Recover the amino acids of this structure.
């Protein structure tokens, strides 16, 4: 019976290819869009995830996500350090500035100012230079993507040693780092805290965040609550702050709706094409199913044949669609716009479940017609 089922399926090559294409298209579209969506949402928290040394982030109570900054007074650092359970605390500056190259090009950049002494929050992976590059006078370090945005026609690594200006102050590019790209598209630059506050316009308060390391054995959430109680500032564990940044973009932007519509269209188109084509395939083979019933085939055996046909179509279409999605992310891996995007295994599993539902919908719509077929149909003209 399995051989007969496969012969029936492969005998009509046009409908067989249409079935496979429908499943493959739905698989490709859904897996690609969901993976891009996950990559974008991860970018919203990358600046938190990149600071691996900090257990807790302390900030002004009005701050809702990592790209929203409300400066705190310098005294906040000492108050946080005085809380029981804090091993160390370091300042972090985050702000925007105008970067002007020697040939007159102007770019708005995002500056992260890391602690002068410990360099907590600085990049850990370097393409040119090293951590000591930040200790040089008037030094600034770009991430690879940021340097590419500023000098799109040149090799970013060749820009080490380049002189430029930030708010009429001379700076020197002393290194290129390899960091996870952020959601904000401004080039990202690193400098020491003392340098960063000189590069940016003067204001009464400068400190954006305080990075805290808990002592060994101290519960991070309990310490965060203690910091809030004793200082009045907002304190969140690194994972809570990362999730809050993700949730802000999920709830305050149209990104989830736009990607959700695309994924839903992929499901609808895949289900509609597959169900309709499979239904027509079954209708055109009713005489064959009737002949099988006439020689004694039961509804259970007929169901097994249809399920086998649907399973073959589903597996081949799913494999081709996933292969296309994997090839897409491999092809765009080096582009700045999709840097760091990949195909998570959770997407493979989730898309497989959705493809199973598409196949199930197609089978249910066809089996009712097969069950009602009269074996006598084979004797009719």
């Amino acid at each position: 019976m399995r051989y007969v089922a496969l012969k029936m399926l492969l005998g009509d090559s046009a409908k067989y290819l249409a079935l496979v294409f429908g499943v493959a298209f739905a698989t490709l579209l859904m897996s690609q869009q969901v993976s891009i969506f996950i990559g974008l949402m991860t970018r919203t928290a990358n600046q938190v995830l990149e600071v691996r040394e900090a257990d807790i982030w302390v900030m002004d109570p009005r701050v809702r996500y990592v790209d929203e900054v409300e400066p705190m007074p310098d005294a906040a650092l000492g108050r946080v350090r005085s809380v029981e359970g804090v091993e160390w605390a370091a300042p972090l500056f985050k702000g925007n500035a105008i970067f002007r190259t020697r040939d007159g090009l102007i770019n708005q950049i995002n500056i992260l100012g890391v602690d002068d002494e410990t360099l907590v929050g600085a990049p850990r992976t370097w393409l040119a230079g090293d951590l000591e590059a930040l200790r040089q006078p008037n030094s600034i370090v770009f991430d690879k993507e940021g340097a590419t945005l500023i000098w799109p026609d040149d090799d970013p690594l060749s820009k080490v040693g380049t002189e430029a200006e930030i708010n009429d102050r001379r700076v020197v590019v002393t290194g290129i780092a390899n960091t996870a790209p952020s959601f904000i598209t401004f080039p990202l630059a690193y400098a020491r805290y003392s340098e960063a506050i000189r590069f940016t316009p003067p204001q009464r308060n400068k400190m954006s965040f305080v990075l805290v390391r808990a002592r060994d054995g101290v519960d991070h959430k309990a310490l965060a609550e203690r910091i809030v109680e004793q200082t009045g500032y907002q304190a969140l564990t690194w994972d809570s702050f990362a999730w809050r940044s993700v949730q802000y973009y999920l709830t305050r932007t149209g990104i989830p709706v736009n990607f959700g519509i695309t994924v839903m269209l992929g499901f609808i188109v895949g289900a509609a094409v597959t169900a309709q084509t499979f239904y027509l395939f079954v209708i055109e083979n009713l005489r064959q199913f009737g002949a099988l019933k006439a020689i004694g085939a039961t509804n259970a055996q007929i169901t097994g044949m249809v399920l086998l046909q649907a399973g073959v179509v589903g597996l081949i279409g799913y494999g081709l669609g996933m292969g296309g999605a994997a090839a897409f992310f491999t092809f765009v891996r080096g582009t700045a716009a999709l840097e760091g995007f990949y195909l998570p295994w959770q997407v493979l599993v989730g898309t497989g479940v959705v493809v199973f539902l598409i196949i199930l919908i197609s089978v249910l719509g066809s089996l009712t017609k097969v069950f009602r077929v009269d074996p006598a149909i084979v004797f009719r003209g």
Remarks:
- The longest strand covers residues 86-101.
- The chain has a mean pLDDT of 86.
